[in-house]
Design goal:
The protein is an all-alpha fold and about 280 residues long. About 60% of the residues lie in helices and about 0% in strands.
């Protein structure tokens, strides 16, 4: 799996936090799902399906959630471009618009919002079908197998948890052997598949937000940004690298992380200035 840079991981986690705040969907679930699906790599692509992006949406699932929720999030142009064919499939008549809409899967902010809306829709449907509160693993099953597949899986698991998942979902098993089969080639039971996702979702969220993945001090980012090409970034005051590092350390309380008290949604002059330095690292000068 491609290693994601600290700056890219920071942007992804901020996008997920914003989506969770806006939709009310649990942040830990969304973070764990993204870690499990793509390793927080917004450009990830699957080798066995049309899945792409932070949450590995396949094309039809992505078109469906954008059609339903795009207008709520400023994507009315995209929602209006998607048509439902007589056979139920979704289509975009204009090739350029289709490419642009599918490309949004690789935008962390849009992908996080659509994943949150998708989870919210699935939660309501699963709870209605199962007559109980949906867990995070239930929601992930709906993302992984589709709502109908997840409902079938969960009902079957309730009746016979030892039943073979591969026998029930041969197509999904063919595309995801590591999920449906153990390392010795034996098919996993429904309960084993479910528990594996439960464990991996929890581990994914912990790894993405725990000490091992703590975002680097902002002062370090400032230094990296300013040292690009060995030159001085002009930030409004012609600071040297040393001056900028000193400013960044002071602004972040001695080299703190982005988990401090400053709001990501209400930037101060200092945080806006620091963002400029961080953007320099990514070619935004």
């Amino acid at each position: 799996m491609t290693t994601v840079s600290p700056i890219a991981a920071s942007r992804v986690q901020s996008a997920i936090a914003a989506a969770a705040n806006r939709t009310g969907v649990d942040f830990a679930y969304l973070l764990g799902q993204a870690k499990l699906e793509s390793g927080l790599n917004a450009s990830a692509r699957a080798g066995t399906s049309s899945a792409s992006g932070l949450y590995q949406f396949v094309e039809q699932s992505w078109l469906a959630v954008v059609k339903r929720h795009g207008a709520e999030h400023g994507l009315g142009w995209a929602a209006n471009s998607i048509d439902r064919l007589p056979n139920g499939r979704l289509s975009v008549g204009d090739a350029g618009a289709r490419q642009a809409i599918l490309g949004l899967r690789n935008d962390p902010e849009v992908a996080s919002l659509m994943a949150a809306e998708h989870a919210s829709d699935n939660k309501a449907s699963l709870e209605g079908a199962l007559g109980r509160t949906a867990t995070g693993t239930d929601l992930y099953m709906a993302h992984f197998l589709g709502l109908g597949g997840a409902t079938r899986f969960l009902r079957a698991m309730g009746s016979d948890p030892r039943a073979s998942g591969a026998a029930m979902f041969p197509d999904a098993a063919g595309a995801n052997r590591n999920v449906f089969y153990s390392t010795d080639g034996q098919p996993r039971s429904l309960q084993a598949i479910y528990q594996r996702f439960t464990d991996r979702l929890g581990a994914g969220a912990a790894a993405a937000s725990g000490p091992a993945a703590t975002i680097q001090p902002l002062a370090t980012y400032a230094a990296q940004a300013l040292e690009v090409d060995g030159g001085t970034v002009i930030t409004g005051a012609n600071e040297s690298v040393t001056d900028a590092i000193a400013w960044a350390q002071n602004a972040t309380g001695g080299g703190g992380t982005t988990t401090g008290t400053a709001s990501l949604f209400r930037p101060t002059p200092d945080t806006a200035r620091l963002a400029y330095l961080m953007l320099a690292q990514m070619g935004g000068r």
